[in-house]
Design a protein that fits this description.
This protein has 16 helices and 19 strands. The strands form six sheets. Strands 7, 8, 9, 10, 11, 12 and 13 form a seven-stranded mixed β-sheet that branches. A three-stranded antiparallel β-sheet has the order 4-15-18. Helix 9 links the parallel strand 9 and strand 10.
Length: 527
Amino acid sequence: MAIEKILKDDASEEKGERARMASFVGAIAITDLVKTTLGPKGMDKILQSTGRGNEVTVTNDGATILKSLHIDNPAAKVLIDISKVQDDEVGDGTTSVVVLAGELLREAEKLVAAKIHPMTIISGYRMAAECARNALLQRVVDNKENAEKFKSDLMKIAMTTLSSKILSQDKEHFAQLAVDAVMRLKGSTNLEAIQIIKKPGGSLKDSFLDEGFILDKKIGLGQPKRIENAKILVANTAMDTDKVKIYGARVRVDSMSKVAEIEGAEKEKMREKVKKILGHGINCFVNRQLIYNFPEELFADAGILAIEHADFDGIERLALVTGGEIASTFDNPESVKLGHCKLIEEIMIGEDKLIHFSGVEMGQACTIVLRGASHHVLDEAERSLHDALCVLSQTVNDTRVLLGGGWPEMVMAKEVDELARKTPGKKSHAIEAFSRALVAIPTIIADNAGLDSADLVAKLRAEHHKEGCNAGIDVISGSVGDMAELGISEAFKVKQAVLLSATEAAEMILRVDEIITCAPRKREDRM
């Protein structure tokens, strides 16, 4: 009895089999949750928060679904974590990575039940993952020399990424938007320069890409609505000092005329500041903080367009786009870099007026305006588009491309199977299990489309035993199709990230043989 009392009362530990069981069950439950969202015929999930406002999110993005779940099971947390990392790293494949890790664990469970030591399974998985990666490397296509072909690769990748999302109906339209936006970045993976504005109304088809930069603000009263060859000063400064700003300040005066003097002095101070700003020789002033009526009047008199309350993202982007810097003091105009653009004008989108900067310095930036029926649709469209943009910007850097539709998994599975036949000892069982886990992905894609997965995957496997075959699952016609002809491609980087992260996560969960839950600290009664 004395031995039992090492841990505190509320702490619990699970050892050996039970701990492993808990990990497997948790991880497999998470996999089953997201696996229905995989593939072009995957379904969406509605997530409703129980917090204030009961927000509803409708999404198909694995990482978004898993981020919103509050989960107790430690193994499930590992899977959620890898999907988050996948989202940050390459942007797409968030569901696949969880599904693959879960399938690897499902297979491992059977092996452990057959008395194979987890370390043996892990070393088998390691060999298999290495082999699978090499199998992909041999089959990649790289078109970076040929710009035309590369652009069509990008289009295909974008369409493949979008086809499992809400945008699949207009995927050509959106793929074009995404490719144009990424091509403008000229190889940087900084997606800050692509701004996405969501405006409810219209349909998804009305979304468009704008060459310039759009600020979601209105133009002040009595100011020019249109400026050509604009010189823009982007600032972060308080333009509201026409009041004494010290809290609880008391000013004792002996007559009303003194009050007027104080007010006059304050106005003078403001006028000085505006003069300094005008001294930069600008015709557009964008400020992050608010601008009071008085300075606004002064700006209007000088024929300058003043924009207030441009939120911080907006300001940073605007500075980036127009090639200016954010200024907060105005004493030496020569050291401040002004932004430039050819034309500033007001445009209408739906109900709202926005300010449009066109002909900007940095050709890299652009704005994508999304239109849609409701906020939920727009949010989901933004997530989908973001996925596509991430994948494309990664592909521009690492130009290797693979076919999609379950093709890479089958290629890997075939190679891994051959490795299993050559490997002596118990490891070979683990390697074979790895190949079964890979085949699970095309199986799930087929299942989600309501097709007969056993039949299709068997056909696929037979096809893949021929040399240089491009067969994958064509969910539209419900049969085995040629992925090269159908133009279904994926980025090599995404597949590689999926493979490696999933293997590592599965390995980590397999290594567990004990789960210790700590007792919460008791709150002392401070009575």
